[in-house]
Write a structure and sequence with these properties.
The structure holds 2 protein chains of 2 kinds. Chain A is built from 15 helices and no strands. By secondary structure, chain A is an all-alpha fold. In chain A, helix 1 crosses helix 5, helix 3 packs across helix 15 and helix 7 packs across helix 14. Chain A is elongated. Chain A starts with a helix and ends with a helix. By secondary structure, chain B is an alpha/beta fold. Chain B has 2 domains: about 280 residues, FAD/NAD(P)-binding domain (3-Layer(bba) Sandwich), CATH 3.50.50.60; about 150 residues, Succinate dehydrogenase/fumarate reductase flavoprotein, catalytic domain (Flavocytochrome C3, Chain A, domain 1). In chain B, about 30% of the residues lie in helices and about 20% in strands. Chain B contains 12 helices and 19 strands. In chain B, helix 1 runs parallel beside helix 5. The chains are: A mainly alpha, B alpha/beta. At the A-B interface, helix 1 and helix 4 of A face helix 5 of B. Chain B: This is FAD-dependent tricarballylate dehydrogenase TcuA. Chain B: It comes from Caldichromatium japonicum. Chain B: Keywords: FAD, Flavoprotein, Oxidoreductase. Chain B: It holds the Pfam family FAD_binding_2.
Chain lengths: ~375, ~450
């Protein structure tokens, strides 16, 4: 597929939408589209303003097999993927985005090798000796932290560059009151208000309205927040209280970690079920692959974490720890080349809308 | 287990709003219902798929429309639009029945668009469907299925047999003939706008120049067969609701987006390069139908909207890109118009233009025939653009005469006791001429419900 095709297809469909306007109650994409018929610059913004609720696909009198063949959710999903590719840093990241399952395999394998290497190094130089307890017997604390921190630092940089590039291309010319705009946008971001479609729910699997995707999103978000809380409380225990892992079952890190792990497992399985059983027509295959690969990666991280919790007193512990750590490495390293990208792009789209709306009202 | 389709209480013919309302109403009363839709599943719903809003009376503000629209106001507007040709008894049932439609739709799971979003043209008269007519179709089919209505697609019903004031049997074509003897039948299969032969019979060669804006399955054969069997006709066989659409639109199903909206921004000429009407005379949404009707009488049913660069900027967006050229002469050649004739038309038009004299005045071109009474700007800024225009047919205006209970009347007096009609097939009782926006869907839903309950009552007695 040529680079220009996602843009020209979306432009062709949005032109029809701007005349028809029947969907203007569903989402802000149509409202923006009416006021500014799409140019290449606004298309990249509109693509991320779309939350893929698919209301407009099932409502469309011009949906395939009509000769106008309007399938906006698919066209905008294609376009989002194209925007990811256009803004990726470094350029080699395109490959990871276009072959997400190969990227997943590569990241897991490299993580596995790295963890093994770290264990060998730790054992050879007896670095674990000062802390003879639990996990750190297998892999010393310092090396373990590095396996997490290094890819995370890299990913932070890559994400900042990509999201920064996008913001520079979409921000309104005189963007004032950015902080206040963030505050206005935050409730919409956190409540995922657009995932209720036009107020009736999304068309997650078929022509029927549903709240499934929104609930799964909330569950995933809560799960990841619990996992973060587990890490932070564990760090507190380790550094401030001088308590070394593994922590007892009735401790904050284990509670948060368990809750987070279960939520992430449930949410990623739910997303995959929607993706595999739902109507494929309004989806873009390459965007769906990116979704599925990311769900699979999160599932591996969460499931291996739960397995480690269950098996931490057994002889399986070193193997389980290595699997969990390599999956965490893979997740952190792949953040800027995975579906995780959408979080920033969506937030920026909402921020842009909030700034534009505010300026219009201020006039 | 699949019901034997030979043993059914109510057969509903058609698949749009009227058919669905009739089927749902009859099923709710407890009848077994078979709904036979001619289109395949993905194109079900007739012209309801292209609908956007419906005209509903209401006595107080609702989340979907502000103010009030009393039934009496609705009725007087209907009388005015049809020049007092609407059937008063049916009109009464229409405007009063419309009071309950918003609740009925929501009860069946059809979302309406709240006015709180401020994304709609403010209207006390019409309520907008969230997502348009296709969402209504999807929701009502889901509801019908849930209620246990048997739905058959790609199923055409033919050969009605009317004897002794009863519809004795029909044929149900799906793969092979199947004779059906339902206890009651509700015909909701619309007019005949997609039927080329029907149009040619009443319009002659002009029919070749028409574009069908809606479903290609609304061909009126069942209507014609009933009329042949002695049902009473109502309305005007040559009547049709025509709208000016882009001449390059698909032959069927182009819907709302093929309308050409920029006529007041330019001039419209025929194939000979002559102006025939005042392009600034009507700038409201009624202009679409005015121009559609006019084009039907023009040579080859074609006109061209000509715009200069200014006009194109001012015109609302259009489906297809215009035909463009650097000069008007070159544009004329592309359109197959004699450049000299077009030059004469433009010279006369330009000579007649009077710029505004006081603030609030408009540009006008008076003193020529026809004048342009509003937005008469000169066509001087290159490049120049043209949109070809053709009449787009929306519905025909001949149907079945029905009583207030939607029972089909017979030409020689009396009614067919087990045959009912709802929707555009009986709309000519109410709109033998003229139209009001949102009326088609209201007629479909109100009389669909009435027909469904009357048919059920007949079957149950």
């Amino acid at each position: 597929m040529s680079v220009a095709k996602p843009f020209s297809e979306a432009q062709r469909m949005l032109r029809i939408c701007a005349i028809c306007n029947y969907c203007n109650g569903f989402c802000p994409v149509f409202e923006v589209n009416v006021h500014h018929p799409p140019t290449a610059a606004t298309l990249a913004h509109l693509a991320h303003l779309c939350h893929g609720c698919r209301n407009c696909f099932y409502a469309c009198q011009y949906a395939p097999p009509h000769v106008f063949a309007v399938n906006l959710p698919r066209a905008l999903a294609e376009l989002r993927h194209q925007v990811y590719l256009d803004r990726v840093w470094p350029p080699a990241g395109r490959w990871l985005l276009d072959y997400p399952f190969a990227a997943l395999l590569l990241a897991l394998t490299s993580g596995w090798l790295l963890v093994l290497l770290a264990i060998l190094v730790g054992t050879a130089f007896d670095l674990g000796a000062p802390m003879q307890t639990g996990f750190y017997r297998v892999l010393p604390w310092g090396l373990m932290s590095l396996i997490g921190a290094l890819p995370l630092a890299w990913s932070g940089l890559a994400l900042a560059i990509q999201w920064g590039r996008h913001w520079r291309s979409i921000r309104p010319p005189q963007a004032r009151g950015l902080m206040r705009a963030w505050w206005r946008t935050l409730p919409a971001i956190l409540s995922l208000s657009h995932l209720s479609g036009g107020g009736v729910g999304c068309n997650d699997r078929d022509a029927g309205f549903s709240q499934a995707r929104r609930r799964l999103h909330q569950a995933l978000f809560a799960g990841l927040a619990f996992c973060l809380a587990a890490t932070l409380t564990a760090a507190l225990y380790h550094h401030a209280l001088g308590l070394s892992a593994p922590y007892p079952v009735l401790s904050l890190p284990v509670f948060f970690g368990t809750a987070g792990g279960v939520l992430v497992c449930a949410a990623t399985l739910g997303f995959s079920w929607l993706g595999l059983t739902g109507d494929p027509e309004p989806r873009a295959p390459r965007a769906s692959h990116l979704d599925l690969a990311f769900a699979a990666l999160l599932l591996i991280v969460a499931a291996s974490g739960l397995a480690l919790l269950l098996g931490r007193a057994s002889a399986w512990m070193p193997g389980l720890l290595a699997i969990h750590l390599s999956s965490v490495w893979a997740l952190f390293a792949l953040l800027p080349y995975s579906k995780f990208l959408h979080a920033g792009y969506r937030a920026l789209a909402l921020l842009q809308e909030s700034l534009t709306e505010h300026e219009t009202r201020g006039d | 287990m699949r019901r034997q389709c030979t043993d059914i209480d109510v057969l509903v013919i058609g698949g749009g709003a009227a058919a669905l309302a009739a089927a749902i109403e009859a099923r709710r009363i407890g009848c077994s219902v078979l709904l036979a839709e001619r289109a395949p599943c993905h194109l079900r719903g007739g012209n309801t798929r292209h609908a956007r809003n419906l005209r509903l009376a209401h006595l107080a503000p609702t989340p979907f429309s502000p103010g009030a629209y009393p039934p009496a106001t609705f009725w007087s507007e209907l009388q005015r639009a049809t020049q007092n040709t609407a059937d008063p008894l049916l009109g009464q049932r229409l405007v009063e029945g419309s009071l309950a439609i918003a609740d009925w739709l929501q009860g069946a799971g059809v979302p309406l668009q709240p006015i709180a979003g401020h994304r709609l043209p403010e209207s006390q008269r019409t309520v907008f469907l969230l997502g348009g007519g296709k969402t209504l179709v999807q929701r009502l089919y889901a509801h019908a299925k849930h209620l246990g209505i048997e739905i058959r697609y790609e199923t055409e019903v033919t050969d009605p047999l009317l004897t002794g004031g009863r519809l004795l049997e029909v044929c149900c074509r799906k793969a092979e003939y199947k004779q059906l003897r339902p206890r009651a039948v509700i015909a909701c299969c619309g007019g005949a706008q997609a039927n080329r032969a029907w149009l040619a019979r009443h319009w002659g060669e002009a029919a070749d120049g028409f574009i069908n804006r809606g479903s290609p399955w609304v061909t009126g054969e069942f209507l014609a067969a009933l009329l042949e069997q002695g049902a009473q006709a109502v309305g005007d066989p040559r009547g049709a609701y025509l709208v000016a659409v882009d001449g390059r639109s698909p032959a069927d199903d182009g819907g709302i987006v093929t309308r050409i909206r920029g006529i007041p921004e330019g001039i419209v000429v025929d194939q000979e390069g002559r102006r025939r009407e005042d392009e600034g005379g009507d700038t409201a949404s009624t202009r679409y139908a005015l121009w559609g009707r006019r084009l039907a009488d023009w040579p080859r049913q074609i006109g061209y909207l000509l715009l200069d660069a200014r006009g194109l900027r001012a015109a609302p967006p259009a489906l297809y890109p215009p035909i463009s050229a650097a000069t008007l002469g070159e544009l004329a050649i592309q359109l197959g118009i004699d450049p000299e004739a077009l030059r004469l038309t433009l010279d006369a038009y330009h000579a007649a233009i009077r710029p505004p004299r006081a603030p609030g005045d408009d540009w006008q071109a008076l003193g020529l025939l026809p004048p342009k009474t509003r937005r008469a700007y000169p066509l001087v800024e290159p490049p120049f653009h043209a949109y070809p225009l053709r009449p787009g047919i929306t519905f025909t205006a001949q149907g079945l005469a029905v009583g207030p209970d939607t029972r089909v009347r017979l030409a020689n007096g009396g009614v067919v006791e087990n045959l009912f009609a709802a929707g555009m097939i009986m709309a000519p009782n109410l709109i033998p001429q003229g139209y009001l926006s949102g009326l088609a869907l209201t007629i479909g839903l109100v009389f669909g419900r009435i027909a469904g309950s009357e048919a059920a009552r007949y079957v149950r007695c």
